[in-house]
Specification:
By secondary structure, the chain is an all-beta fold. Strands 2, 4, 5, 6, 9, 10 and 11 form a 7-stranded mixed sheet that branches. Strands 1-3-8-7 form a 4-stranded antiparallel sheet, with no helix packed on it.
Length: 130
């Protein structure tokens, strides 16, 4: 069982930065691939960024490439999402999620709408004003 708690959301202006954190309970954090997802009002949930259990592989949505960076600290049991140059279209509730890592996989193997993820945080609101 893994419990996830996201923090770091807020209201910012276009062009600003935010860093989201997702703290995980338990001693097996390093065995999970982690993903950040977001859901805007009236839209489906979408993958934003994924990182493999050792951080060796990452993947990003085209809409955030070059602006967002996912990273993890397996000592602190935390995954981060650094968001720079924020745009109003980034406004959404952001969720982190965990899925047991499988051998011989890269970040794209964990991409999608999140159906393969077993554990989810409660979400944190990010609002970007123009």
């Amino acid at each position: 069982q893994v419990q996830l708690v996201e923090t770091g959301g807020g209201l910012v202006q276009a062009g600003d930065s935010l860093r989201l954190s997702c703290a995980a309970s338990g001693r097996t954090f390093s065995t999970y691939a982690m993903g950040w997802f977001r859901q805007a009002p009236g839209k489906e949930r979408e993958s934003v960024a994924v990182i493999t259990r050792n951080g060796g592989s990452t993947a990003y949505a085209d809409s955030v490439k070059g602006r967002f960076t996912i990273s993890r600290d397996n000592v602190k049991n935390t995954v981060y999402l650094q968001m720079n140059s924020l745009k109003p279209e980034d406004t959404a509730v952001y969720y982190c999620a965990a899925t047991p890592a499988r051998p011989f996989t890269n970040a794209y193997d964990y991409w999608g709408q999140g159906t393969q993820y077993d554990y989810w945080g409660q979400g944190t609101q990010v609002t970007v004003s123009s």
